Amino acid sequence: MKTILVMTLLCTFAFAAPVLAALTDTDLDKIRLILQEEIKPIKTDIVTLKTDGAIVKTEVTHLKETVNNGFGDVQQDFDNIQKNFDRQNNIIIACIGIPLAILAIGATIWGILANKRSRKDEILEKQIETLTQEIEMLKQQRIVNP
Fold first, then answer.
1. How far is CA 88 from CA 76, 79, 84, 92, 134, in A?
2. Segment 91-139, tens digit of pLDDT
3. pLDDT tens for residues 107-119?
4. DSSP per residue, the chain
5. Alpha carbons 27 and 82: distance in angstroms, whole number
6. Would you say residue 14 has pLDDT above 80?
7. Rounded CA gap, 57 and 63, in Å?
8. Distances (CA, A) of 136 to 68, 125, 133
9. pLDDT tier at 38 (50, 70, 90 boundaries)?
């Protein structure tokens, strides 16, 4: 029973496979017609895009011409603006740099003076130490020789 069932299935697939896979000329013609109908709107869109692109190109060239012809002093204006920025930068640098220079000079002078004071303090401390040692020595001599 199983073998008969398997044999019938194999036979049906063997006969049905070539029949389903073959395309006739009418099928190919139908496919071509469908593709042509689908391509027609795409072709019209491409043509409109080309014309729009050409229009945009002409408008851009027209704008370039008007900019080049109508704004001849633009470079001079840019140069003037650049000069103004340079002046402003110099003013800003001066406003920041001068106080910083004053602070740096003041800090340097203060450091030098503080260092001198500390040297004086060291000298005074040494003198105090020597004097205290001499006093101690004198006290000991007095204690020993009353």
1. 18, 14, 6, 6, 69
2. 988 899 898 889 989 888 888 887 776 777 888 889 999 999 999 888 8
3. 888 888 877 767 7
4. -HHHHHHHHHHHHHHHHHHHH---HHHHHHHHHHHHHHHHHHHHHHHHHHHHHHHHHHHHHHHHHHHHHH-TTHHHHHHHHHHHHHHHHHHHHHHHHHHHHHHHHHHHHHHHHHHHHHHHHHHHHHHHHHHHHHHHHHHHHHHH--
5. 74
6. no
7. 10
8. 99, 16, 5
9. confident
Q: Which residue has the tokens 């020993």?
A: 144
What letter represents residue 85's amino acid? F
Q: State the residue for tokens 């000069």.
A: 83
The tokens for 125 are: 């401390």
